[in-house]
């Protein structure tokens, strides 16, 4: 993942967005500290879906059903 400072992002937004649309990801820093991540929409959708409460519950239920109803941890 490439790193870009907030000031550089401000000056290069169009180029960065073009690269992200092509699959690149960026860690955005502000005063040297990680502040945000920019990633393609497809990756963001996957991330949101994987952490959505409803999806997590369904995944847990499927694991329990597959393991005969035994309790499992979500790692």
Q: Widest sheet: strand order?
A: 1-2-3
Uncertain regions spanning at least 5 consecutive residues: none
What proportion of the residues is helical, as a percent range?
40-55%
Mean pLDDT: 87
How many helix segments?
4
Q: Bin the strand percentage.
A: 15-25%
CATH architecture type of the largest domain: 3-Layer(aba) Sandwich
N- and C-termini, Cα separation: 23 Å
Assigned CATH superfamily of the largest domain: YefM-like domain
Largest beta-sheet details: 3 strands, mixed
CATH topology of the largest domain: YefM-like fold
Structural classification: alpha+beta
The figure for the number of domains is: 2
- The count of strands amounts to 3
Overview of this structure, please?
With 75 residues, the chain is an alpha+beta fold. The protein has four helices and three strands, in the order βααββαα. The chain folds into two domains: 39 residues, 3-Layer(aba) Sandwich (YefM-like fold), CATH 3.40.1620.10; 35 residues, no CATH class. Strands 1-2-3 form a three-stranded mixed β-sheet. A hairpin with a 2-residue loop joins strand 2 and strand 3. It starts with a strand and ends in a 9-residue tail after the last helix.
Q: What's the gist of this structure?
A:
By secondary structure, the protein is of the alpha+beta class.
Topology overview:
Blueprint lengths: L1 E4 H6 L1 H9 L4 E5 L2 E6 L2 H11 L1 H14 L9
Parallel strand pairs: 1-2
Antiparallel strand pairs: 2-3
């Amino acid at each position: 993942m490439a790193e870009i400072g907030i000031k550089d992002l401000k000056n290069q937004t169009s180029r960065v967005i073009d690269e992200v649309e092509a699959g690149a990801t960026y860690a955005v820093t502000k005063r040297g500290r990680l502040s945000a991540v920019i990633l393609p929409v497809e990756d963001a959708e996957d991330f949101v879906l994987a952490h959505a409460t409803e999806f997590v519950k369904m995944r847990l239920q499927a694991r329990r059903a597959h393991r005969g109803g035994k309790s499992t941890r979500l790692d």
